[in-house]
Amino acid sequence: MLGALTLIFACQLAGELLVAVTGLPVPGPVIGMVLLLGGLIVRGGIPEPLAAVGGALLSNLALLFVPAGVGVMLHVALIGREALPITVALLVSTAATIAVTALVMNALQRPKAEGDAGPHDDGGGGEAR
């Protein structure tokens, strides 16, 4: 369990170091997650200790939002002054996320072959029986 947690933190540290060295405009933990994902793909699966640690982190995910909530309460006056730009950014980013998700889903769907019968197609030429 300690080894799996160390692996997670090592990937995060590697991501932070990559951002510091290269100046990439991506958060270090995101790059760390990509590194971890790459390692798991190369390995061909998730080791049981890593799955257990990941499950424990996910089951206590609400606790990880406490610092963010405290930050929001600490800067509520600033958020109030900047409500319009924050709202616009949230709306635009949500719309962009929905659009990109729809485009990716559309691109990944298997095209239906012309001869394939649909789930409600009985092959009768469209006549009602």
UniProtKB/TrEMBL annotation:
It is a multi-pass membrane protein. Keywords: Cell membrane, Membrane, Transmembrane, Transmembrane helix. The chain crosses the membrane at residues 30-46, 58-78, 84-105. GO terms for cellular component: plasma membrane. It holds the Pfam family LrgA. Its main location: membrane. It comes from the Bacteria. The keyword Nuclease does not apply. It is found in: Cell membrane. PANTHER family: HOLIN-LIKE PROTEIN CIDA, HOLIN-LIKE PROTEIN CIDA-RELATED. This is CidA/LrgA family protein. It comes from Stappia sediminis.
